[in-house]
Amino acid sequence: MPVTWFLTGASRGIGLEITRQLLESSSNTVFASCRSPATAFDLDALKSSPGTLHIIQIDVMDEISIKAGCSKVLELLNGTGLDYVINNAAINHAGDLAFSFDPAALAETIQCNVTGPALVTRFLLPSIEKSSRKVIVNISSPLASIGRDLGPISTSYSISKTGLNMLTYKQSRERPDFIPILMDPGWVKTDMGGEGAKIEPHVSVTGILNVATKLTSADAGKFYTYLGKVNPW
Ligand SMILES: NC(=O)c1ccc[n+]([C@@H]2O[C@H](COP(=O)([O-])OP(=O)(O)OC[C@H]3O[C@@H](n4cnc5c(N)ncnc54)[C@H](OP(=O)(O)O)[C@@H]3O)[C@@H](O)[C@H]2O)c1
After folding, report:
1. Regarding the domain with residue range 3-225, which homologous superfamily does it belong to in the CATH classification?
2. How far apart are CA 179 and CA 175, in angstroms?
3. 117 lines ligand 1 (CB under 6 A)
4. How far is the CA of 113 from the centre of ligand 1 (A)?
5. How far apart are the CA of 1 and the centre of ligand 1, in A?
6. Mean pLDDT by 10-residue block, N- to C-terminus, for the chain (233 residues)?
7. Strand, helix or coil at 207?
8. Where are the transmembrane segments (predicted)?
9. Domain spans of the chain, in order of start
10. If 0-12 CB within 10 Å is exposed, 13-18 middle and 19+ buried, where does residue 173 land?
């Protein structure tokens, strides 16, 4: 049975690794979106993989781009369902603090990390409704968690990911037939995570996909780590 996947931010980091692992199976069709397909060379190189890859242009900061990219996905799906939506693309103006943050950076971070995923999922709705799976994985962060008490760093980013957490809760309550969840990928060695991070992208992504493919309706609205543990709010 073919399985269909969509994700944002597939050009590098965790998104590229998600695409790479999914395409190892010929039963997966992946709609991998990125904001600049013309320069996404590592993503393009995955075209020879066993799975089916469609590269879609989406800038999650731009509603027109999101609408056009999602329409393209619906067109390619040709009336079949979309099983998994992974909202992965995000930015982090690391280093900003609660008493010195730049309001423009906060607005930009919320646009990218909350409004973007909300619109992506909204425009993909007709295809999610046609799936028997209906999984939405919103990639969050431990910095979204007040319970984890991670201190003053990355204020705008943390606010945005806490907003994404609430969006996911709302999605799960508005559509009890969907399985929207939050995923903490761990501290991962990517451009965002930095060299000092704890785990390699392949370790994080193996865990993310293991959790995602086992989700049931009882998991809707939960905040999981890539190891399948529940994060505190
Ligand atoms: N790495 C970690 O330790 C860590 C920890 C917790 C949570 N996360 C979360 O995991 C996810 C992936 O992070 P990462 O570490 O892979 O980050 P990354 O290496 O910085 O990659 C970010 C990805 O997001 C894309 N992106 C940024 N702005 C975009 C936009 N406006 N439109 C479309 N795509 C955009 C980038 O595309 P371009 O190539 O076009 O810039 C890139 O593909 C994010 O949601 C992040 O918050 C990461």
Report:
1. NAD(P)-binding Rossmann-like Domain (3.40.50.720)
2. 8
3. no
4. 9
5. 30
6. 96 98 98 98 98 98 98 98 98 93 96 98 98 98 96 96 98 98 98 96 98 98 98 96
7. helix
8. none
9. 3-225
10. exposed
